[in-house]
Amino acid sequence: MAKDANQSDEGIRWALVVDLDRCTGCQACVVACHAENNLQIVGEKEAAYGRWTHWIIIHRYWEGEYPNVKARFMPIMCQQCSEAPCEPVCPVFATYHNEEGLNAQIYNRCIGTRFCGSACPYKARVYNWFRPEFPEPLTEQLNPDVSVRTRGIMEKCTFCIQRIRRVEIDAQAEGRSPTDGEIQPACVQTCPTSALIFGDLNDPNSHVSQLAHSRRSFRLLPELGTDPGVIYLKGGEVNV
Ligand code: SF4
């Protein structure tokens, strides 16, 4: 398949497709993300102040008019924009664009100005208001591949970059490239309805690349020109 506007010749661009017709709003992806990325739980009171730390939020909205209404769910995470508004505003270069199309975050550089959070039109970044606490035995489930961020740090989804790197290193040792579908962020692996699909948007034969050409595909707030790496598939239509 020939390359088009979704693709570039500049190597890999990791992307996530979210099929809204498949999402049931179960939030298994949110829980998986918490477990994989050592996200703290802030409790009901602080969550009411908007201080939750989820890297994926499931938005609920209603479609249609009563009595023919249907609940729809939209998972929102960092959109991994190629023209990311969060990057140029960081005064210490803690957030930057990597060579695989990811909007990466260097936690031990972050000084917590929250400029990036203000600049993000998707509100995908969360601020760490508290020193994280993981009472015993929760420390046993901390992922050793991921740092535990301290108070004052802005954090967000990175498509589980630790999983990407693990597969890439293993594949390199075997003298090959990762195969399509071999890398699975925690949310993708956990989703019971396969609503999330991950892969290289620049590979014209990858599953995400082909889904990106579906007539159901769209990106959030395209008028802003951010060019997100998260592609949604509209719900409610049968033909792809
Ligand atoms: S796990 Fe899958 S079905 Fe459940 S909320 Fe997440 S994306 Fe939707």
From the coordinates shown, what is the CATH architecture?
Answer: 2-Layer Sandwich
| Total individual domains | 1
Which cofactors or ions or other ligands sit in this model? iron/sulfur cluster
Rounded average pLDDT: 92
Largest sheet: 4 strands, mixed
- What is the CATH class designation? Alpha Beta
- Strand arrangement within the widest β-sheet reads 8-1-10-9
Question: Spans of 5+ residues with little confidence (pLDDT < 50)?
Answer: none
Short description:
The protein is of the alpha+beta class. The chain contains 6 helices and 10 strands.
Provide a descriptive summary of the structure in words.
There is one protein chain. By secondary structure, the chain is of the alpha+beta class. The protein has one domain: 2-Layer Sandwich (Alpha-Beta Plaits), CATH 3.30.70.20. The protein contains 6 helices and 10 strands, in the order βααββββαββααβαββ. It has a 4-stranded mixed sheet. It starts with 13 loop residues before the first strand and ends in a 7-residue tail after the last strand. The mean pLDDT is about 90.
Topology:
Elements: E1 14-19, H1 28-36, H2 44-48, E2 57-63, E3 70-76, E4 95-97, E5 103-105, H3 115-119, E6 126-127, E7 154-155, H4 161-173, H5 186-190, E8 196-200, H6 207-212, E9 217-218, E10 230-233
Parallel strand pairs: 1-10
Antiparallel strand pairs: 1-8, 2-3, 4-5, 6-7, 9-10
Bound molecules: iron/sulfur cluster.
Iron/sulfur cluster binds next to helix 1 and strand 3.
